[in-house]
Amino acid sequence: CFFKLPSDSFKYLNWCDLEEHDVRGNQLLCPRVREAGPSEEELFFRGEEHTLKKRKQVTEAEKWQKKLQENWENCAELNLSYQDLGDLYQVENLNRILRRLIRVEKLWLVDNSLTDLSAIRLPRCKELNVNKNHFTSFKQLPKIPQIQHLSLSENNITTLSGISALRHTPLESLTLKRNPCEFQENYRQLVFSSLPNLKTLDGVPQLPEDWSPPKIHFLSKLCTIL
């Protein structure tokens, strides 16, 4: 026999919806993406209609109060990893939060099955970890003009095409381990030549052989002395 836990009826509630607390978004380091939850029809088919009693009509004033309490704009460091984004409403809510992170400097989005964040801009982000996602190109990354440390391990980036978008950033360290592009010929030379500020690639500082100027082939001319 299956018994509902007392907390089960709160599974789709945002922390803002809980009463008698004043916790703000910038005080949370590892929040879960929970916004509204599935539709009432889907909840019925899931056998979770018992969660509906916790829902109520939200006024505009309450929506504004919730936005102030979330306070994502003041987050400087945030971990949104391992979100298990199995429902579309969760993906949409994650993107809603990301668009509000105008002051975040350190952001972790590990193992979220992300494929494209090109519509997101993180103007102050200096450290971004998007390991274990499904990116296939540098063009799918968010806009990160102030990035210094970028980790992209265990994605599916097959080519270095598009890496030049990071050329004018202060990027110092880049991790691309376990991406197909790691096996490209002259991989390290190509990366360092594309990113002039880069100091460390895949945890290894730049080596003398990582900088190889283009080879110039001179045509030898035969001179005949009569």
UniProtKB/TrEMBL annotation:
It comes from the Eukaryota. It holds the Pfam family LRR_9. Keywords: Leucine-rich repeat, Repeat. InterPro entries: Leu-rich_rpt (IPR001611), LRR_dom_sf (IPR032675). This is TILB protein. It comes from Crypturellus soui. The lineage of its organism: Eukaryota, Metazoa, Chordata, Craniata, Vertebrata.
